[in-house]
Design a protein that fits this description.
about 180 residues, seven-stranded mixed sheet, 4 helices, 7 strands
Length: about 180
């Protein structure tokens, strides 16, 4: 028991010092990987600003994923005031749906005292989430790692911990130990 407590204390110190890298491999059809499950230990009261880079916040289900992520930020212990979203603009028939959906989310966040800054890039490819407390999360599939539910009335439709996932990798690290080139 003492060894387990010592290891936990050591990991907490490593996290605090930013010398921590965690990699989570989400297997095909795995469950238990809601946004809350993945991000809760990196969201503290000091988090006031979040940057999301994800080129695929375009279609209805992707907009709902982003909305679900925003809901998590609003109800967590953090005091998020600004969310920056960098995504790509849908050039097809979904352009109007994307812009109206993001505007609705922006207004809804404003009603909760959160400002959403939208920016578009035609060359964005990588996916990344950064919190102003220094934590950075890279998800191979971005926010869109959940599979489509079997039906509107199946488990996992509302609770993402019960929703099967696509296979992806999540890398979590602190920016104290990242080198910008």
């Amino acid at each position: 028991m003492d060894r387990a407590e010592h290891i936990k204390k050591y990991l907490d110190q490593e996290k605090e010092a930013g010398k921590y890298h965690k990699q989570i491999k989400i297997e095909e059809n795995a469950t238990g990987f809601s946004y809350e499950s993945l991000f809760q230990e990196y969201l503290s009261e000091t988090v006031t600003e979040v940057w999301i880079e994800d080129p695929y916040i375009r279609h209805t289900h992707q907009l709902y994923n982003f909305l679900r992520f925003c809901e998590m930020l609003v109800k967590r212990p953090c005091k998020v005031k600004t969310i920056h979203l960098l995504t790509s603009l849908d050039e097809g028939t979904g352009k109007e749906q994307q812009s109206s959906g993001l505007e609705e989310i922006k207004q809804s966040l404003r009603n909760h005292g959160v400002h959403l800054e939208l920016e578009y890039s035609s060359s964005i490819h990588d996916r990344e989430i950064r919190f102003n407390n220094g934590w950075m999360i890279k998800i191979g599939r971005g926010l869109d790692y959940f599979k489509k539910p079997q039906s509107r009335f199946s488990l996992g439709y509302c609770d993402f911990d019960l929703r099967p996932c696509h296979e992806t990798t999540v890398d979590i690290f602190h920016n104290k130990h990242t080198k910008k080139i």
